[in-house]
Amino acid sequence: MHRFKAYLELVRYPLFAIPIVATLPGALIASQGHFTRRVGAALIIALFGYFAGMIKNDYFHHETDKQTNPERPLPSQRLTPQQAIVPASIIYAVCVIGGFLLNPQAGFLVMGLVAISHLYNAIFKAKGILGSLTLPLGIGLLSIFGALVVSGTVPRLVWYAFAATTLYDLGTHITTTFKDITRDEQLGILTTPLQIGIRPALFVSAVATVLAFAIALLPYGLEPDIQRSYVIWVVLGIVATVGTRISLYLQPNEKNGYLALKGSMVGSILFFPCLIGAQVSIVISAAVILPLLLITLFLLKTTRQEV
Fold first, then answer.
1. N or C: which terminus of the chain carries fewer CB neighbours within 10 A?
2. Residue of 229, 250, 231 whose CA lies nearest to 239
3. pTM of the model
């Protein structure tokens, strides 16, 4: 049980909803709103691949964590590095095999997602803007993966979801690096604000976020025969994001960076799957999105785990 709890900490289980809501648009749009077995398979592969990436993150940075997060499973020696890297690699391999069993396109994309995750965790995380670009690309591609699993093709509406998700996560990644900016500077960890400057980084984040919302709204006027009530989720995402980032733009510090992180998590769960509302009724989309949001908020409050 002690080891099981350590693994739960490694995978950051309160964040379980992020890969699900990033994959849902592609899967449900490709299935025309039907929750099929292939939709379920896409969500499971995305979830476990995300967990494996979290484990790899702690593996590659456990030496730094000895100074910054000594309570985490690896620096606290509740798990050894080998006990982290082996199951993470096995999970990745199972995800790749699962992708190919569904169809070749999905299998090759899983390989690409694994490569992106590895590059981010091993190299680009501490390389400033490269890290801020790499991780969001992987998150955005989950919608493409969901579509490929279900139909082997990528409907036009899914490309909107890919672009909006990638840009939103780019803006999120930049703002949330502020929560550790003093510590990162002391340890020589290069994040985007430290590489290009605080105000330029906030400007890039704002532009990416505005573009994400704009792209998500494009189908409202350009795509016929969709449920236009999906705009509700875009608006809620805007409220959650803007409301928790204003203070960071006024006073760029760690406290406001953590507030922006929490707001972005709520915004992500509301915004990433917004375009499923273009295919299904507002009641059905709410039945999917709201439980994921409430469970996430509950886990974050009860576990008090740093994310």
1. N
2. 231
3. 0.94
